[in-house]
Design goal:
By secondary structure, the chain is mainly alpha-helical. The chain has 16 helices and 8 strands.
Length: 400
C-alpha cells in the first residue's frame, strides 16, 4: 500500500550561523569616533616629519634660541645687556611671536589634516571600510589638537620659566629705576623726591614747557629760562621755575604716565600667565579648526594656508583698528578681531598699536573697533562651529 506524505510539513532549512564575536560592539556606522580612529589620525600626523619639525621650530625652537641668546649675552656682559627675562620679554615673545605664528602653524596642521586623505589617494579606502564619514572627520580634531596644543604648551612653559627666573631685580621705567607697584599718591611722592630724573626721562604731553633741569653728562631737559620757543600750542616764553614748581611739574608728569606705569611689572603674575596661556591656546585651536574645515572644503593644503596667512597678517590688523561705517559688522565678525577683544587685561595688543589693552579695558583696546566681549565670544564660537560643520559636510558629500 502506497503512503502519501503530508505536503504541508515544512522542510527543515540550514541552521542559523552563529553571531561573530564582537559584532554587537561594531560601531562602524556611529558618528562618534572611536579611540582607535583618533590614535590612527594622531600617528598619521606625527609621521609627517616636515610638519612636526616646523611646529617644533616655531613654538619651541625660535623662542628658545631668542631667550638663549639673551641669557648668554647677559652672562657675558651684564652691564651692556639686561636680564633675559621679565615682563617686557614676556610681552615681546608671547604677543609679538607665539600668538601670531602659533596660529599660522596650527592652521598649516589643520589644512594638512583636512586634505591629506585626498592628496594621498586614501579617501576611497576609508570610505569602503564602512566607517562613518562624520566620525572620520571628527577624529581629526582631538588628534590634531593633541599635537598642536602640546607644542604650544611646551614652548609657552619655557618662556614663562625664563621670564620669571631670569627677571630683572629693579623696574626700569622710561630709563629710571622706579619702585614697582606704587599707588598714584605713592608715585607722586616718589616723583617729587626725584623731580630732576622724572622731568628728564618721563614722557610728557601738555601745553606747559618743562623746567630746565640738569640731566647729567652736561645735558639739560629743555631750553633755559627766558627763552622764546615755538610749541604746538603757540609761541611761549620759558618761565623761571622755583624748586616747589619743579617738584609740582614732576608730579604732574607722573600722574600723566601713571596708567602706563601701573601696567608695567618686573615679572608676569601667575594669573596673567595662566590667562594668556589659555588665550594663545584658544588662538591655536581656532587656527587648527578653521584650517581643518577649509582644507576639507577645498581638498588641498596650499590655497587654504595662503588664505589663513592673509587673514592673520593682513585682514586682522587692518580691520581691527579702522572703522568702516558700512562694514562695521563685517569687521566685528572676523575671528582675529574678536580674539583681540578678549585678550587678558594689561597687555599690549598684538600687531602694534601701543599701550596695554585687551579685555581689561587698557589703552590698547581704545585703538580697536568697538565690540563687546559677549559679541566677540559669540563670533569665536560661531567660527569654530561653522568651519567644523562645513568641513564635515564636505567630507560626507564628497564622491569617493
Amino acid at each position: 500500500m502506497t503512503t502519501v506524505s503530508d505536503i504541508g510539513t515544512p522542510v527543515p532549512g540550514p541552521a542559523p550561523l552563529p553571531t561573530p564575536a564582537g559584532a554587537a560592539n561594531d560601531h562602524r556606522g556611529s558618528w562618534i569616533p572611536t579611540w582607535g580612529m583618533v590614535t590612527t589620525r594622531f600617528m598619521e600626523l606625527r609621521k609627517r616629519r616636515g610638519l612636526i619639525v616646523a611646529l617644533i621650530a616655531v613654538n619651541i625652537g625660535i623662542p628658545v634660541v631668542f631667550l638663549g641668546v639673551r641669557l648668554i649675552a647677559h652672562a657675558v656682559d651684564p652691564k651692556s645687556y639686561g636680564p633675559a627675562g621679565g615682563y617686557s620679554t614676556f610681552e615681546i615673545v608671547v604677543l609679538g611671536f607665539m600668538y601670531i605664528f602659533g596660529f599660522i602653524v596650527a592652521a598649516v596642521v589643520g589644512c594638512t589634516a583636512g586634505s591629506v586623505d585626498l592628496t594621498e589617494g586614501m579617501f576611497r579606502h576609508l570610505v569602503i571600510s564602512g566607517r562613518s564619514r562624520l566620525a572620520l572627520y571628527l577624529a581629526r580634531i582631538p588628534a590634531g589638537l593633541a599635537i598642536v596644543i602640546a607644542m604650544v604648551a611646551i614652548g609657552y612653559t619655557i618662556v614663562c620659566a625664563v621670564c620669571v627666573f631670569a627677571a630683572p631685580t629693579q623696574l626700569n621705567y622710561d630709563g629710571i629705576n622706579v619702585p614697582q607697584g606704587l599707588s598714584r599718591p605713592a608715585l607722586d611722592n616718589w616723583a617729587a623726591a626725584h623731580a630732576d630724573e622724572v622731568i628728564c626721562n618721563f614722557a610728557y604731553d601738555g601745553p606747559s614747557v618743562p623746567p630746565n633741569v640738569p640731566c647729567g653728562n652736561g645735558q639739560s631737559s629743555g631750553p633755559p629760562s627766558g627763552a622764546t620757543i615755538k610749541t604746538p600750542h603757540g609761541t611761549v616764553t620759558v618761565p623761571t621755575y622755583t624748586q616747589a614748581q619743579i617738584r609740582a611739574f614732576a608730579v604732574t608728569m607722573a600722574n600723566q604716565d601713571y596708567a602706563d606705569y601701573s601696567a608695567t611689572f618686573l615679572v608676569p603674575s601667575t594669573s596673567i600667565m595662566f590667562d594668556v596661556g589659555l588665550w594663545i591656546a584658544l588662538e591655536a585651536t581656532i587656527g587648527f579648526i578653521v584650517g581643518l574645515g577649509l582644507g576639507s572644503l577645498m581638498g588641498q593644503r596650499t590655497v587654504p594656508v595662503i588664505l589663513l596667512v592673509v587673514l592673520e597678517l593682513i585682514l586682522t590688523p587692518l580691520f581691527s583698528r579702522h572703522v568702516i561705517a558700512y562694514m562695521l559688522n563685517v569687521e566685528r565678525a572676523i575671528v582675529g578681531v574678536a580674539m583681540l577683544h578678549i585678550e587678558p587685561g594689561n597687555l599690549p595688543t598684538p600687531f602694534g598699536g601701543g599701550g596695554p589693552g585687551g579685555g581689561g579695558g587698557g589703552l590698547g583696546r581704545m585703538t580697536l573697533i568697538p565690540e563687546s566681549t559677549l559679541v566677540a565670544s559669540l563670533v569665536i564660537v560661531g567660527w569654530l562651529v561653522f568651519w567644523t560643520a562645513i568641513g564635515a559636510w564636505r567630507m560626507m558629500t564628497r564622491d569617493a
